[in-house]
Amino acid sequence: QLQASGGGLVQAGGSLRLSCAASGLTFSNYNMGWFRQAPGKEREFVAAISWSAGRTSFADSVKGRFTISRNNAKNTVYLQMNTLKPEDTAVYYCAADRSDLVQSQSKHGIDYWGKGTQVTVSS
Q1: Which of 22, 54, 79, 123 suits a disulfide with 18, CB 3.0-4.6 Å?
Q2: What beta strand segments (E) does the chain contain?
């Protein structure tokens, strides 16, 4: 299971840190990612990190503002979101996959999804 937390309401320009705690799987075997879905839109890739944390990738829309990290000892992946914009408003989902999520950035065939946490950025 994946349990995301840390969402909330923040003003534009503010920051939030999302966390996703994993249980019931060998966390260090999985590449981890964050996706988001805004109302009326498809779920889209945000960021991913390899199992060893040696590689990361980001959507162009968040590059330079978001960072992703993981702590394999705590079975947790993080998404630090800075300089938030109203267009970042969405439900954020964490994902775990054994394929190369850092390269594919694909929402298809994901092994595990978390339930999502709402992020709302006011203007």
Answers
A1: 79
A2: 2-5, 8-11, 16-22, 31-37, 44-49, 56-58, 66-71, 76-81, 90-97, 112-113, 117-122
